[in-house]
């Protein structure tokens, strides 16, 4: 079982790296200003994707482990499909609101459609992870991430990259992954012949997961704030840094998806120890990122060219803070598995509100570096706060158990 979990995490990390490579090549060809529009559009789509997910992808993990034939899981697929349509439609509407140039309209519309398909793909991905099926996980991620890389890598080697080709191939890859997931995993979801669970029932079960995941994903809106409040060059640099940081967050998300089913079956003491270990891993990753900072100007020049040289300070902040900030999802999953999902949701909302408010203020007043530094500190503190939440829960459980035992001893006496 451990080998399967490691394989699924490694697959997700590789997929994140492939997506980052695709975006680096795309950004280098487009330049900062056009990529600011593309990055903001993708950020909006990613945020809306989780907003309309209603926490189903996270909740399905726990529900699937508890009852593999649950009709709620099967019926949630229908809501995920409607959510995908809503994401595609609203992403397109928001992109129009951003004032997308006419030359990018077709590409951005295709990206909006892609975000909708991605939402439904995440449902099947969650089912495969809950079942411990590493082959479907790898194949679906490969279908979603490899075609876009090929669409930009080959044209980049011989000439100009086409954003339309990148968007079209992204849509095609997600459609292929969705078709595979429906055929391979759809028949394992259980019967949907029972009465369809109401939308209210689904949301009542998944609401804390929805609040937590949406508040975590609200960091995507920093790119949108930069597009609206900062100069075009700064917005492009900010968007690029946020997109390149995705592989690290992919690692955290993968660990979180694996941790949530497992955390539902362990005690509070073991959960507290697990959180402490995850937090230390985050600190170690941040320390490794700090060691890479001196080489950043050289790396940025090789990977992105001269137009993005000023991105080095922003990337340095991401490297130093990414480890500690990115372990919030797995720690939050451990807490959710222990029944502390409401506390996780509260911490997530407070962090999101403070972080986004600071980003808007700092982008107008002090610039992108100060904005990113402040939000990175906020999300690092979130990891510590979630660890303290699990520790407090374990301590309270131990105290209540001790009081119960003393009461029983007194009764016997």
Write the layout of secondary structure elements.
Blueprint: H1 2-30, H2 32-51, H3 56-66, H4 71-97, H5 105-131, H6 134-158, H7 163-185, H8 199-217, H9 221-229, H10 232-244, H11 246-263, H12 268-292, H13 296-304, H14 312-326, H15 328-337, H16 341-365, H17 368-412
Helix pairs in contact: 1-2, 1-6, 1-11, 2-4, 2-5, 2-8, 2-9, 2-10, 3-4, 3-5, 3-8, 4-5, 5-6, 5-7, 6-7, 8-16, 9-10, 9-16, 11-15, 12-14, 12-15, 12-17, 14-17, 15-16, 15-17, 16-17
Describe it:
There is one protein chain. With 413 residues, the protein is mainly α. The chain has one domain. Helix content is 85%, strand content 0%. It has helices at residues 2-30, 32-51, 56-66, 71-97, 105-131, 134-158, 163-185, 199-217, 221-229, 232-244, 246-263, 268-292, 296-304, 312-326, 328-337, 341-365, 368-412. The longest helix is centred in the last third of the chain and has 45 residues, at 368-412.
What's a concise summary of this model?
This protein is mainly alpha-helical. Helix content is 85%, strand content 0%.
Please tally the helical runs, counting DSSP H or I stretches of 4 or more residues.
17
Question: Mind summarizing the main beta sheet?
Answer: none
Low-confidence stretches: none
> Mean of residue pLDDT?
78
The chain-level structural class is: mainly alpha
Question: How many E strands?
Answer: 0
Task: Note the beta-strand portion.
Answer: under 5%
